[in-house]
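Re: beginner question about structure tokens

> Can someone show what the tokenized structure looks like for a real chain? I only ever see the sequence side.

Sure, here's an example I had lying around. Input first:
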Amino acid sequence: QVHLVESGGGSAQAGGHLSVSCAPDNPSYCRHSISWYRQAPGKEREFVSSISSTGIQEHSSSVKGRFVIRQDFGATYTLQMNKLEPEDTATYYCKLHCVLLDQDYWGQGTQVTVSS
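And the corresponding structure tokens:
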């Protein structure tokens, strides 16, 4: 199994930047991709960004050009969020998908608040 530890987030003004990180405690457990989803109050959880096991990134149309994923030293993944908008306010969840095992593991979520 894998446990994901999320960190970062916080508050920023529109136009600013924040980052949220996701650290699998057992990254060698499986070949995996990492995705971020977010959920705003009263709304459904939505896809934000992902990075495949081969490093290919995908981003939703609402964040494309503003968000990017980087893999830091070791197995920590960081979602760098630039040019933040109030609409980016949500709880951000990291998900690890085991490609061959077809298993998903979720982080505990971290809050991002953007004020206008």
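Each token stands for a local structural state, so reading them left to right follows the chain. The longest strand covers residues 90-98.
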